[in-house]
Design brief:
It contains 10 helices and 18 strands. By secondary structure, the protein is an alpha+beta fold. The chain folds into 2 domains: 3-154, Rossmann fold, CATH 3.40.50; 161-357, no CATH class. The chain is globular, with a radius of gyration of 20 Å.
């Protein structure tokens, strides 16, 4: 049903070429994931690409490392057994302290199915995992991460001029790199300040043509890892990652952490349980600005955070894109119609005014 759209994704977004190796994987969270996986593999075969696919049991949480069976597919069972003997695999899976270089050294000569290109669309995100970072940073795979993806997105937020999205995303990321602090406000109670000093902005352009490039599809944002201990204020959220909240919740940040949650809503219990299980999951992790003009869905965070004129704040893991917090959790929250100021020593610029990008 979506084969022409998948072919466009392969050719335009990933520059997939005949003879390359392609890995496609997903989970069993949604009933259509298996059928979509088959379509991805069928199109790859027509294009003359060597492709392998895997569907695994849902991990039920964003930011967790993928299961052992996927690691074994990519790096071989023998190499993962060796990683276990070295005491490294369990530490990677649970995001405990480990040497990334030591893990790479143990895997660099492995004879599994090492892909040139990855299409990852499990419901729960693998973007902020060491598995992704290994493939992009160390093995130079091109990696499209598509958590919460729904096929109708092919007809909306995937159907854009990717050159324009890339241009705007790069402008935003450059401004973030130059900035030292951010102030965010909204008419419904958001009032948050945080530091981005010394951190590098990243453009999620949707175009992954060079080895090591990665991002979401649908894409469209410039983002950065804020300084973890330097966020103060309150973030009022209207949506969980996949649904509208019955009542808003307010996250209160002190020294970079969510120290208190205000509001009566079932999602509050979910968050509090995660923060109790993983004490560092409540640190600010990401700040991003949406740049996709055809993104519009507020109830699906994959698309919501790309909506042109929105911003999003994440808590949890950020060690794979410039931060230092390592925890098996990462979740974003969108702020609608925000006013945003980015500044540095001796300068300030209003980047958004009630949801209107002033740099357009």
């Amino acid at each position: 049903m979506f084969k022409d759209k998948i072919e466009r994704l392969y050719r335009v977004n990933l520059n997939l070429k005949k003879g390359e190796k392609l890995l496609v994987f997903t989970d069993d969270e949604k009933p259509y994931n298996g059928e979509l996986l088959e379509e991805f593999l069928e199109v790859a075969k027509v294009l003359g690409v060597e492709a392998k696919g895997l569907i695994y049991k849902s991990l039920k949480q964003h930011g967790k490392e993928p299961p052992k069976e996927l690691w074994e597919l990519v790096f071989s069972e023998e190499c993962i057994e060796n990683l276990e003997r070295l005491g490294l695999f369990e530490r990677v899976i649970f995001k405990e302290d480990y040497s990334q270089e030591e893990v790479f050294k143990a895997l660099k000569d492995c004879k599994g199915f090492l892909p040139d290109v990855v299409v990852a669309f499990p419901y729960y995100s693998t973007t902020h995992t060491f598995f992704r970072k290994l493939l992009t940073d160390y093995f130079k795979s091109r990696y499209a991460s598509m958590p919460l993806f729904e096929p109708q997105m092919f007809l909306t937020s995937m159907d854009v001029d990717w050159r324009e999205v890339a241009k705007l995303s790069e402008e935003v990321s450059q401004m973030l790199t130059e900035g030292e602090f951010v102030e965010v406000k909204s008419d419904y109670g958001v009032s948050l300040e945080f530091s981005i000093k010394g951190r590098r902005g990243i453009a999620d352009t949707g175009l992954f043509h060079r080895g090591g490039e990665f991002g979401n599809l649908p894409a469209g944002e410039g983002f950065i890892a804020p300084v973890e201990e330097e966020a103060f204020g309150k973030l009022t959220i209207l949506y969980a990652p996949d649904r509208k909240l019955e009542r808003p919740l307010t996250l209160k940040f002190i020294n970079g952490r969510v120290e208190e949650i205000e509001g009566f809503e079932d999602y509050r219990k979910e968050l509090e349980e995660v923060f109790k299980r993983y004490p560092n999951a409540n640190f600010i992790a990401e700040f991003g600005v949406g740049t996709n003009p055809k993104a519009s869905r507020p109830d699906n965070i994959l698309e919501a955070e790309k909506i042109l004129g929105t911003i999003h704040i994440a808590v949890g893991d950020n060690h794979t894109f410039g931060g230092k917090n390592k925890v098996p959790f990462h979740t974003d929250y969108v702020v609608f119609e925000p006013t945003v100021i980015i500044g540095g020593r001796g300068w300030k610029e209003e980047v958004l005014l009630r949801g209107k990008l002033t740099i357009l």
